[in-house]
Amino acid sequence: MGEFGTGGVVPVRRGVGAVGAVAAAVVLLAGCGSQVAGAAGAGGGPSVAGSGSAGPCGVASASPGPVAKDGVRITAASAACAEYEVTNPGAEAADVTVVFGRSGAAGGVLGNETRTVRDLAPGATGKGRVELDGKGSVLTVVKVRSVPSAEASRPDGPCPASGVRVSADDGDAAMGLRVVGLHLRNCGTATVNLNGYPDLQLLDVGHRPVDGVRLLHGGAQIASGTGADDPPRPLALKPGEGARSTLAWRNTTEAGAGDAVNAPYVRVRVMPGAAPVTVVPELDLGTTGRLGVGAWVREDGQPPATRPPAG
Fold first, then answer.
1. 144-167, pLDDT tens digit by residue?
2. Are residues 9 and 131 in the same domain?
3. Contacts with 179 (C-beta within 8 Å, 6 or more apart), sequence order
């Protein structure tokens, strides 16, 4: 099912990963009723029972209003669905992504639901809906991420004016090692020439630049076999062709090494001076202070096929 924001209907992605930290808004769903409540924290949280006018999901909306987290507000709920609102508090249009976590009434994890409202104007509110199984569950707002719409990564959207699409994959994680791929696709009509490494700027959860992290060329200083060690070489990407860069890091935390660094956002410039694209690889760098960055290589790992000269 889609959702409606100021940008229209947006496809819904359904995940099966474990639910993250419990967020500030929780909907307790039962077969005959519902309640919108604040998650209990160290000092407890406010609780608002549904007692307003009937909501679109068939039960009363909370009054005077449910607890909000990072601009997301659950407004109505039943055993079958939950309605929510997303508000953009920023000063520019944004693509806002919300990860909802679902768990069973008995506490078992059911998975995650991801929704994105695109082109949400400053101060505007978009509305959406989460379908549920009707058997009773607990819905939590796991996290909220927003990027300026002008810099948003939209792998399936229209080709940007730059002629290239940039995106980040879900990556791999094992024994504290993280590897994420940055992907570039020439969606334009002209050849795209690359030679070297992407230009990166790390941003924290408040979109502030992250200082003190060394960006290393290649992944050898992080771990072997990450795929980030190919040397830079000139690439000429024809329309439809792609390239990949690899990010590698460790999330280990050492006592006395300072605070752990988290950089959910990365502004990517395909080359110095190019228009930035903001991706959300969720860099949990621990206290290591290092990020390995691979050179651009062809996405298929092979040079393009060449035609024999005419005649």
1. 999 999 999 998 889 998 999 999
2. yes
3. 171, 172, 173, 219, 226, 227, 228, 246, 247, 248
